[in-house]
Amino acid sequence: xxxxxxxxxxxxxxxFLIGTNTTENHPIIGYKIRKNVRYNGAKLIVADPRNIELAxxxxxxxxxxxxxxxxxxxxxxxxxxxxxxxxxxxxxxxxENYEQVAEVVKKYTPxxxxxxxxxxAEDIRKAARIYATAERGSICYAMGVTQHxxxxxNVKTMCNLALLTGNLGKAGTGVNPLRGQNNVQxxxxxxxxxxxxxxxxxxxNPDIRAKFEKAWGVPLSPNNGLTIPDVVNKAHHGEIxxxxxxGENPMVSDPDITHVSESLDNLELLIVQDIFLTETxxxxxxxxxxxTFAEKNGTFSNTERRVQRVRQAITPKGDAHPDWQIICExxxxxxxxxxxxxxxxxxxxxxxxxxxxxxINYQRIDNTGIHWPCPNEEHPGTPILHGExxxxxxxxxHAIEFKEPYELPDAEYPLILSTGRSLFHYHTGTMTRRSSAxxxxxxxxxxxxxxxxxxxxxxxxNEKVKLVTRRGSIEVNAQVTEMVPAGVVFTFFHFSEAAANxxxxxxxxDPVAKIPEYKVSAARIxxx
Length: 528
Prior knowledge:
Elements: H1 7-10, E1 14-18, H2 22-25, H3 27-40, E2 43-47, E3 60-62, H4 69-82, H5 88-94, E4 95-96, H6 98-104, H7 110-117, H8 121-133, E5 137-141, H9 143-146, H10 151-165, E6 175-177, H11 184-189, E7 196-197, E8 201-202, H12 206-216, H13 228-236, E9 242-246, H14 250-253, H15 257-265, E10 269-274, E11 286-289, E12 298-301, E13 306-310, H16 323-333, H17 343-353, E14 370-371, E15 395-396, E16 415-420, H18 436-441, E17 446-449, H19 451-456, E18 464-468, E19 473-480, E20 488-492, E21 521-527
Parallel strand pairs: 1-2, 1-5, 2-3, 4-15, 5-6, 9-10, 10-11, 16-20, 17-19
Antiparallel strand pairs: 7-8, 12-13, 13-14, 16-21, 17-20, 18-19, 18-21
Helix pairs in contact: 4-7, 4-8, 4-10, 7-8, 13-15
C-alpha cells in the first residue's frame, strides 16, 4: 500500500474499491471503510463482478464483466479529462507521458466501455466524478485485479487514474493493494521474488549483486530466477529435478491441478516444509515440520508496509522447529554455514543489506511497528509514499489498451467462471478447515449461480451439479444467488475434495508478473 490502513477510516473522502471483496477477505479494512462511509460521509465506489457486501452502501456500484477492468477505468479517465476534472498542476509538475494516455482513452467513452463491461454509461460518469472531485480519493484493489492475463495492465491503469487526479502522496489517497496473507509483503521485501534481492534490488544489476556477494561470501547468478508457473512447467518437462516447497500448497492453490500433480510427480526430489501434512506434503520425499506463528519469534511486514514484532507464545510441539532453524541446518549440511543464534541476529544482517529496513531494529518496534522505508534510526518511518517525489523522479503514465481475457465463453462452455475466497476459510484450508466452528458455516464448496442462469439450466438451489471447464470437472452444490450476474458463476478454492483449481488454466498468465488467470475461465454447468 502507498498509504496506511487507518487513513481509510478517517482521511479518505472517497474510496474506490475494485476487485476486492473487502469485508470477507480483509475484514478489518472493510470495517474501517464502512465506518468512514457511515459516520464521516465518505463516498464509496464499488466495482466488482459480484454484488459484494459493501456494494449495498456504495454511492455507485459497477457490476462489470470479469476481465474488463482496463476498459472500465479508461472510461473513467475519459470522463475526467473530457470534463476538465484532471489535476493539471500535478500532471504538469510530477508526471510524464500523460499525452499518450490522453490519446488512448479518447475512444473509451462511457458508452463504448459500457458495451464492453456490461454496465451503465451514466454510472461510469458518476463514479468518475466522485473520485475526481474528492478532496482525498483512495484506490483499493486485490486479486480480482491482478489474477488476470492482463494483471499488470490492470494495475498500471489504476496508477494512471491516481496520477490523473493527483491522488498520491497525501493522507487518504494512494494506490493500495490489499495483500492476501499476513506476511506476503514481508516475503517480497526479503527477496522472495525471482527478480530481486531484499528491498527489490535487481538481481541483474551488477553493483547490487556485488554487494550481496560481499555480504554472503559466495558468487551469485546474474540471471533472474523462475516464477511459479515456470517452475511447474519446467518440472513437467524434466528440466527441474528438485523442488523445496515452503509454506505453500500448490496441489490446491495453483491452476490446473492435474498439470501440477504430474509436474511434482516428475521430480527426483520434493521437499515440503509446513505445519500440517498438506496435499502437497503428501507427495513429498522429505517433510520438514515447521511451527505456527504462535511458536516463533521474528517479524511480519503487513499490507501497509508496517514491520512489527512476532513473539513466541507457546513451545513448539514434537519435532517441529522454527523455519529459520530448519533452513540454517539444511544450509549447514549442504556446505554453506549459517550459524545464526536468533531471529534478531538475522534481522540485524537484513538491516545492513536492505536500505528500506536500515533504521528498524527490535527495540524500535518493541511496542509499535514502523512503516518502511526507514533509512536510519532517527527516521520515524514512512506511512505515506511519494509525498514529495516518486522513486523514479516523475510519475510515469502508461498508455494501456483493453485486451480481452484469454478464454472467453463459447457454445460448448457458455459461462464465465471466476474463483476466490470465503470469509470462513483461509487460502487452501490447511488451518481453517481443521476448525469445527468454521466448518459449521461453510463445510464444503459451492458454485454461485444467478437465478436467471439457473432457471435456463433447470437447476434449483442446493442441487448437486457438475462444474466443467476444458481442464476437468468438480461436483458441488449450486447456490442460486443474485450476488453473481447472469452468465457468470463463482466458486471457492479452499476445498481440496472439490478443488476450483482443477478447472483453472495454467497455459496462460500475465506476461510480466506471470500471475495465472484465475478470475476468467470458460465453463459450463451440467445437471447430474
